[in-house]
Amino acid sequence: MVRPGKIVCVGRNYAEHARELGNPVPERPLLFLKPPSAVIGHGEAIVIPPQTQRVEHEAEIGVVLGRSLRRADEVVARAAIGGVTCVNDVTARDLQKADGQWTRAKGFDTFCPIGPRVMSIDPSTFDLSTLQVICRVNGAVRQNGRAANMVFSIPVLLAYISQVMTLDPDDLVVTGTPEGVGPLVAGDVVEVEVPGVGVLRNPVTAQVPL
Ligand code: ZN
Question: Is the pTM of this model over 0.90?
Fold first, then answer.
């Protein structure tokens, strides 16, 4: 299973998704962090905590660093990519709106499914713009996005992040979700597929009150 040192995420990186939540398309990448304690693997349950009434899926393309990156340009940033994986940036939408920042909404245990594997790539030959991400809930397609439609491309994101913090090998950058986000409830099965990488499948359960 993937155990990233840190998880750097990007908000509103597809224009249609920004619009569906009533947000402007950002002028620069909008960054936030998810805690590594939120990570679960393929097949493990997403647990809905009692604090929220609205948990949503966000299917995203995950980029795993192959080497360190600090104050890099886009060319150097691209060369530092080690692999690609599927990520579900599970979000308590009501808490995201209520808190004004996103730590609680994005940070619950089990809110970062990753997997089922990291596909190693050779960044000198792999065309990142061909990557696609699909979300299904109980078999029905909810999201279908293409990296070609990102507001900021993967190399631009990595270079931008590296101006702020050093990215280390095995750190994970989560590159934003396309339109179609929607609710998850106990009993659902949610899948995030990046074609060529695999299908990340997780059941959804509710936390049993103590
Ligand atoms: Zn997201």
Answer: yes
